[in-house]
Amino acid sequence: MTSPEFIRAVANRYASQLQLCYPLTSASFSLAKTIHSHMVTSGFHPAGHIRNRLIDVYSKSSRIVYARHLFDKIHEPDIVSRTTLVSAYSSSGDIKTARKMFEETPFSIRDTVFYNAMITGYSRNEDGHACIELFRRMLREDFRPDDFTFTTVLGGLALVVNRGMQCKQFHCVVLKSGAGFVTSVLNALVSVYVNCGSVFEARKLFDEIKEKDELSWTTMVTGYVKNDELDAARELVDGTSEKLGVAWNAMISGYVHRGRYEEALDMFRKMYFMGIKMDEFAYTSIISCCAHAALFRLGKQVHCYVLRTEAKPTPGFSLPVNNALVTLYWKCDKVDWARRIFDNMPVKDLVSWNAILSGYVNAGRFDEGRLFFRKMPERNRLTWTVMISGLAQNGFGEEGLKLFNQMKSEGFQPCDYAFAGAITSCAMLGALETGRQLHAQLVRLGLDSSLSAGNALITMYARCGVVEAANVLFLTMPCVDSVSWNAMIAALGQHGHGIQALELFEQMLGAGISPDRITFLTILSACSHAGLVKEGQYYFNSMHRLYGITPGEDHYVRLVDLLCRAGKFLEAKDVISSMPFEPGAAVWEALLAGCRTHGNVDLGTQAAERLIELMPQHDGSYVLLSNMYATAGRWNDAANARKLMRDRGVRKEPGCSWVEVENKVHVFLVDDTVHPEVQAIYNYLNKLVPEMRRLGYVPDTKFVLQDIESDHKERVLSAHSEKLAVAFALLKLPSGATVRVFKNLRICGDCHNAFKFMSKVVGREIIVRDAKRFHHFRDCECSCGDYW
DNA sequence: CTAGGGTTAG
Asked: Is the C-beta of residue A291 closer than 7 Å to nucleic acid chain B?
């Protein structure tokens, strides 16, 4: 019954059954387990070759516990089982246990393969030094390295090389050992040269390889891509008929990273028509390409194609494909679709979390974004950067700065993008000192050549009133893009240098940079602040004719603003009626603001009607209307507008103004309740009135004072807290001191005039920040150039 | 029993 022949026959059957586990798939483990338990129940003891097979399958299916269990039952484990286990431990990241098992193995049974396995372990765990050290020890202990050894050690070397010298030394060792003709070794050597940036040497070696295999080609092509020589890589790819799927994938992702989306797509198409196998790597890159290039329709087509052709049973798409899809969908404003993909992913990693977080932050959905941020199982530098720059760009300056500091205290070194976010926060808050400190830190870290940080700095300096610093930065930045030009043009425009802004725009054209829609928004604002009506109209008309940019509603709003500020209401009306779309609230608001400034009640009332119709719950609609009546001296109408607002249950948006005097900060809350300090301010302004009159100042601001004298003074006071804040500060100031006023809402024409007036009357500088820009009043002049 | 190339987030 249990004759040796019979046992041998059974063993052979098990051996051939186990062979079915190869090549390894996700099903291999359960198959091996079934065969294994069959052996146990039928009383067959797996030993020798069969036992080692089982250990191997268990190890490679990441079931080390099973493998170890079998291993421990062996009385004297042979070198093959030991090699398998060393390899299993190191590939699971447990390099310590691997090393322990390595050291416990007696010298007498060790062989080259055993050393190779341990060296590979270090290579997989990215410890190049340990690879080389073990290689040296292997030589000392008289084991002969083979092709595998060289290939692996070279792989480890590639991790740590930073000079060509080391490459050359190893090159010599390889040649001396006689392995210089083995393609796999030469491939690894090429890869080492590539990794230390010696592409030229790599290419020389590559050309010397007699029998180039697919890997030789791939290594060389990807080597060019890694060293940013995409054209050389392409030349190599085009020069061979080999179907180098991996190399094509590397090239596509290289093109995507460099922003060469057209070429990436072109290769993808060629790949399809040439019948090169497309895998998840290709899909991932091309979906990411579509997301970056805003080719959403194509992206969705690829998604469908992948669904149709590659749908796998359980795990769905691979992790990176899903991650790229999440990005694709939020970029085309489908955050909820992105969320659905995210939720359905069987496995998520940090990249997935960062992708969905960016989606929410970029869509301005901060409540959900914050929730995600808190829930994340782990965070990295990018996570923080996404939050910081998102918060900054959406007006949460304080929170952005807080997060920036938190990021540092949690041990993350901020990258230039994070700095850009923090600097943008400073720009919003008018925190010039903090901004300067950040600039200094950038220089210390050697990050000051960064484009994004530089652009943020230009805006920060400009918004904080230091145009000169912005200009110096713009001129000294190592490279600039259209964002930099836009920022600098805006900087000049915001400070009333309308003509210089236009000159810079012309320079930009001369430098071959094409303007975008932001450029024209900036130009129109610059003209508006400086009263350059003709120029503004000219550029508005040229944007479609010369640059093919169709004006959006935001451009029309600025044109209306430009005309209205100059009192050209007929033209403004013409513009509104000639608009290709229904004018929205912003257009009417601009018109109303102009009417307020010029006291054009007839047109203003019409504008206000439309505005209130469109935004009945928007406090600004009523405040503008009431201020317009006030400007025209129609106090009852002004009061009625306020009453209408209250009757409709609209609260004036609570804001907050604060005054900083000699390190002391006074805060004024602005809402429908009257601040207790108001009475003191009121008294002071009453003292100021005769002084104003005595100086013969007949200000546009007269209504401010009349407001206060009117029956509605309390409500009006709360609406004009900025003026009051300044007055209050001046009241308590030692003479000659500078006053800073910060306001988190946009400064209005009334406030502007009031500050002008105050600076003249009291002979002091007044610095005001609002959400949009910086005002520096001195002797009635305002640095922002706004003319009202 | 051991090795080598490509993927995703601002």
From this structure: yes
Helix (H) or strand (E) holding A555: helix A553-565
Task: Give the closest residue to A606 by CA, choosing from A625, A634, A580, A631.
Answer: A625
Last residue of a domain, one of A480, A506, A525: A480
Domain assignment of residue A625, yes or no: no
Nucleic strand B near CB of residue A626 (< 7 Å)? no
Asked if the Cβ of residue A184 lies within 7 A of any atom of strand B, the reply is yes
Specify which residue's alpha carbon is closest to the C1' of nucleotide B2. Answer: A117
Roughly what angle, to the nearest 10 degrees, separates helices A48-60 and A28-41?
A: 140
Strand B lies under 7 A from the Cβ of residue A249: yes
Q: pTM of the full predicted structure? A: 0.79
Angstrom distance, A280 CA to B1 C1':
30
Domain count, chain A: 2
Return positions of chain B under 7 A from a protein CB.
1-10
* Sheet architecture: strand order including A664-670: A664-670, A655-661, A739-743, A766-769, A774-778, A781-782
Asked whether A788 and A567 are in contact (CB, 8 A), the reply is no
Please tell me whether any atom of strand B lies within 7 Å of the Cβ of A111: yes
pLDDT for residue A690? 63
Quickly give A119 CA vs B4 C1' distance in Å: 14
Query: How many other CB atoms are found less than 10 A from the CB of residue A158?
Result: 21
Chain A residues 373-392, Cβ below 7 A from strand B: 380-382, 385-386, 389
Residue A436 sits in a domain whose CATH number is: 1.25.40
A56 touches strand B (CB under 7 A): yes
Residue A749 lies in a domain: yes
Task: List the domain range (segments joined by +) for residue A697.
Answer: 656-782
Of A753, A751, A756, the closest CA to residue A771 belongs to A751
Q: Which residues contact A557 (CB under 8 A, 6 or more apart)?
A: A586, A587, A589, A590
A146-190 pLDDT tens trace: 989 999 998 888 888 776 677 788 788 888 888 888 999 999 999
Kindly report, residue by residue over A600-634, the tens digit of the pLDDT.
999 999 999 999 999 999 888 888 898 788 777 78
Nearest-angstrom CA–CA distance, A589 and A600: 14
Structural domain contains residue A575: no
The residue among A449, A480, A511 that closes a domain is A480
Is A407 within 8 Å of A384 (Cβ atoms)?
yes
Q: Is A693 helix (H, G, I), strand (E, B) or coil?
A: helix
